[in-house]
Amino acid sequence: MASLTTIKNRMTENLQIANWFKWLPSLALPNGGNLPVGNTNGEATRRRFHPPPFAAPAGGTPMGARGFHPHPFAVKTRARPSPAQFDEVLIWVWIGLLALGLVMVYSASIATSEANKFTGYQSSYYLLRHGVFIATGLLAALFAFQVPVQTWQKYALYLFLIGGALLLLVLIPGIGREVNGSRRWLSFFVINVQPSELMKLSAVLYAADYTVRKGKVGHLFKKAFVPMLAVMVLIGGLLLQEPDMGAFVVILSIAFCTLWLGGFNIKVFAALLVTLPLAFTALILSSPYRMQRVIGFMDPWSDPYGKGYQLSHALIAFGRGEWLGVGLGGSVEKLFYLPEAHTDFLMAVIAEELGLVGVAAVIALFAVLVVRAFRIGRDAALLDRRFSALVAQGIGVWIGMQAMINIGVNMGVLPTKGLTLPFLSFGGSGIVVNCIAAALLLRVDYENRRIARGLPV
Fold this sequence. Notes:
By secondary structure, this protein is mainly alpha-helical. The protein has helices spanning 4-21, 88-114, 125-145, 149-154, 156-169, 195-213, 221-241, 245-261, 266-285, 288-298, 309-321, 346-382, 386-410, 428-452; strands spanning 27-28, 36-38, 44-46, 75-76, 176-179, 182-188, 191-193. The radius of gyration is 28 Å and the shape is globular.
């Protein structure tokens, strides 16, 4: 019969082993014991396992030292992953922008739609169509969210080629539709599609895939940078033929920011800081159309009834808004003074009716969206998901750059570009593509969170 001391020692050892097994729900067995695990924010961090302290049995070896060892590849989380499956802040920002856009499009268009024979004198003409665009965008976003990021990467090149073909198709007389002197739309019976909007999403996917594929030669100018430059020159040439200088600037920003975020040679980007301003100067001087826009932007009051008409009325709208605005629906500039009040110059109406507070709120929403996009990209990068990281950050660059240009144009800081305000301005192609981009961003975040929990995607 065992002595009481021996029985006591065995009971102590069994209790300590049982205590160690309590840690098993938070353990995983990834590669090398140094893989990411989730924390309370759903972020990915890398920690090695440190076994719980065990007291040594009487006369025995300390547990976790030379005695009982946990699995060498075990990873322990200090806190449980966030139970949320999505970035809830991002979803609310997305909904907030769409809702505000619906209200402001109605407010900005009600007067013109009531007095226009084309709209059938219906005050809700643009409201109903914008509502349909949002519903279509949400359905497209729901479908896009179901597609794994790996599938997006697989078809990135094909989507880019389709986008390029549509840009070429829109330039063919009889196929492309011309509005206000620009041939930017393809007409499909009851709907019009703007290929440049589709090209922005395609550029994000293609640039991310290209950067991942060329990662090993990113330091070589000819192999890494020249092919992308040639592609951008081709796409830029098609866009400038429409003309659509604004879309070209956004797509160029997406491509080269993605290369920079992907770790390509910084000397190349230093050279870009010198060559790009010269190239844009040459583009402006080569086109009387672009030259007039620049002159009108620099001094709109020199010709307030001609080339400076649109900008001068946008500035009047900003001035009338002051701190709190004149009230929702109280804008005067939307009453046949400010052209394109519900599309390119929606921000001017927001400034007039909601004032500085409304403008600051819109800028804050876009800032939060961009920050969340880069945070999601950072989490994906910590998980060694380079394509996902670059897609998330590319979407952030796209939305941030386009919003900045549109707001700058409305405030007279930048020349008129013809770019809409993402998620807010009236326009079917823009709303649908923006919603798909938001869904893709949520998909990257969703996969990050599942991988952090050790779940399949």
